[in-house]
Structure formats: C-alpha cells, structure tokens
Design a protein that fits this description.
With about 280 residues, this protein is an alpha/beta fold. The chain has one domain (about 5-180, about 225-285): Spore Coat Polysaccharide Biosynthesis Protein SpsA, Chain A (Alpha-Beta Complex). The chain is about 35% helix and about 25% strand. The protein has nine helices and 13 strands. Strands 1, 2, 3, 4, 5, 6, 7, 8, 10 and 13 form a ten-stranded mixed beta sheet that branches. Strand 6 (about 115-130) and strand 7 (about 130-135) form a beta hairpin. The longest helix has 16 residues, at about 65-80.
Length: about 280
C-alpha cells in the first residue's frame, strides 16, 4: 500500500520539523510533499529529504484560503494516480492512532471500502511551560485521508463527498504545543495583516474582515494558558475518542446538499479532556 502526506508551509519551522519527524518515520521522507509558500532556506533544509515544491509568495489576498484549498485539492488528485492514500492537512496537525499497538497504515488498510477517512479532533492546550493537555475539538474533527479525488472545503474542515470519523484515530492540532513558534508565526504574518487593517472600511469585504479576525485570534492564542478546574477529569485518548464519536455523528450536516461537515456550534458544550499521550510528549519535547 502506497501512502503519502501533503502540507503547505510559511515560516512554520518548528511545526514542519515535527510534521516531518512524525510522518517521515511512518511513511518515509520520500513520500512527504511540502509546498513552500515563498522561498525559505530553513524550510529547504528541513525538507531536504522530502519533495519540496516552492510557489511564489505575494501579498496575502483576501481569498487566499479558497485559492490554497483549490490547489491542494488538485495536487492530491494528481498524487492519487500513484498512491493508494493521500494524507492532507495543515503542518500543525498530525493524525494519531489512539491505541499504541496499532499504526495509521493498518487502520487505513482496514478502511479500503471508504474513499474519505476522518479523525476526531483534539487541541493541544498549554497548562504551564512544560505541561500540556488535550481537549476535544469539533472544529478540528476533519477529513484527512483520501483514496479517490474529492474536493476539500475551506481548511479541509469538510469535504464535498460523504465521510465519517473513524473510531481509533485522533487528529492532533498542535499550534500551542510551542508558544514561541506560535508567536513567531504570528509575527511573520504581521505585514500581511497590517496592509489588510489599513484598507478603508468601505472597501472591506466579508472575506477581508474574516481574515483579520482570524489573525487576531492567532495572536491571542499565542498568549493563552488553559485553566485547570477541580472538575476536570482527563481520560485516556482512546476513551475520549469513543466519547466524542457519537456527538460528532449527530452533528454532521450536509450544506446545500453538497458539503459534508461537522457543525461545531452544536457541540460547543461538549467538553472532553484526554490525557496527554506519551507519543506526543516525546514528539513535542
């Protein structure tokens, strides 16, 4: 079974190093495809054993996310001509089997009847400078593996094709596993957001304002520490996934008869904490 992984990067040095470390061991670096948005010598060095594709970087357009996911959708379709599965996601995401005695490849091999596989999302939250926790995230419970060409929706939070979450797989969203890198990423984007902020209010579209709001959220996240409550009761990751799957299944919706995705607002009161997995602690150290 031939499997490859694809991501796109801009000033994501620490995240890319962890993405390559994790998927390189699993798939071999020769099966990793890194799309570099602009020239970056650090990315080139980190991805020297991978397939690095450089594309020019201009000022961030307001429809950048639409452009990016159209490109990634098409690129995945090309790779499926020579691979059984293509894994596609952001560089600050990895997909982890919840049982240490299973591998992602084994699970995918058992999903041959499915053309799109999703995983249950968990956000890494910092408790202290050296202590992390995992919190269930409906927003990051996403499709991530394809065995036939499909179209991703924005951020790959959904797909224009039926899909479901696979029990036993967790999608780990880890921008806050390293707050210094999160801050560096935010700083690198500041020139783009400064130009967007300077645009006259009457010239701003919905997408323009949404991009500004996303930038503000990223800056706030970099300085956030999760609160610990006496009522918090983290459970093993495998148990947390099993708790989340029924909620996700009940919240799946089809938008305009085309896009299959989770409705995160329906699950905003579902609070599931998972114990930090030893495999992640080792990876993020």
């Amino acid at each position: 079974m031939k499997v490859c992984a694809v991501t796109m990067v801009y000033k994501d040095h620490w995240y890319l190093s962890k993405w390559i470390e994790y998927y390189g061991r699993l798939l071999g670096t020769q099966n990793l495809y890194v799309i570099g948005h602009g020239d970056d010598d650090v990315h080139a060095e980190l991805a020297k054993d991978c397939n690095l594709i450089r594309i020019p970087r201009n000022q961030l357009p307001e429809d950048f996310d639409e452009q990016r996911w159209r490109m990634l959708t098409d690129f995945c379709a090309v790779l499926l001509n020579s691979h059984d599965w293509v894994l596609c996601g952001d560089v600050d995401e990895i997909v982890l089997p919840t049982q240490p005695d299973q591998t992602l490849l084994q699970i995918l091999d058992n999903q041959r009847s499915q053309s799109v596989v999703g995983a249950v999302g968990f956000e890494v939250e910092p408790l202290t400078d050296d202590r992390l926790q995992l919190r269930f995230s409906a927003r990051y419970s996403k499709p991530f593996a394809l065995s036939e060409p499909i179209t991703f929706s924005l951020g790959a939070h959904g797909a224009f094709h039926p899909w479901a979450h696979t029990p036993g797989l967790a999608l780990i969203h880890f921008p806050l596993a390293n707050r210094t890198s999160m801050q560096q990423r935010s700083d690198a984007l500041e020139a783009d957001f400064e130009e967007l902020r300077n645009a006259p209010m009457q010239d701003r579209s919905y997408r323009h304002n949404a991009l500004l709001k996303w930038g503000d959220v990223q800056r706030r996240k970099a300085n956030t520490t999760a609160e610990v409550h006496d009522s918090d009761n983290p459970v093993p990751l495998s148990e947390a996934v099993l708790q989340a799957v029924p909620h996700l299944a009940s919240s799946m919706r089809v938008v305009e008869g085309k896009e299959y995705r989770v409705a995160p607002r329906r699950l905003r009161n579902i609070d599931i904490l998972a114990e930090m997995d030893d495999r992640l602690t080792t990876l993020f150290s």
